[in-house]
Amino acid sequence: MIRLHFNEIIYRNYNNETIEYGIINGNKTIVLIKCGYNGTIRGFNDKYIKIGYLLNEKYGYTIICSSNPFNGNVDSIQDAIDLINTKYQEYVIYYIGNSIAATIGAKYGYKYPSIKKMLLINGPLIFNSDKVVYGLKQFNQESIDLIYGSLDSSIRYIEMINLCYNTKVRYHILEGINHNFENKLDIFINLPEKYLLKGEDHE
Asked: 126 or 195, which is more confident?
């Protein structure tokens, strides 16, 4: 089996931590995939790079997978934006955040107009919930889709998302799915096409 690979790997220091970025070259639509706390840019069973290659080969998107040494209280999206600005002049960003990186997207994504869409997967809702709701309320680009498994611990707080009163924000509950999509990797890998890219014309 051919092992998927990044075209480029970059290491950057931010807020006294090292962030690793894996890049798959493509067009001016950048899919920024940020993993959970202390996860790797490839992900468990290569789930992030598999998403990246699926979107790159089918739609030509540039893929940037980012490690995440932060617990959700640091806006590490800023460093990704700084990196992107050093490499690209014209672009739009679709942000995919898993676990605590979904919380980071919810809290800080609205600050970056270049982020047009976000897919936020099983982001913890019990911590800093007021900041999550505030960030979702402020988002003014195209759409945010939040995904929660019915077996994820945050499902009991899901109604708080309605407090953002933002028609651009919607959530979806996937039955029988836990926080890590255990034994459901195929479902995880296809989430971006089903939710993030829904309704787009790619011709």
From this structure: 195
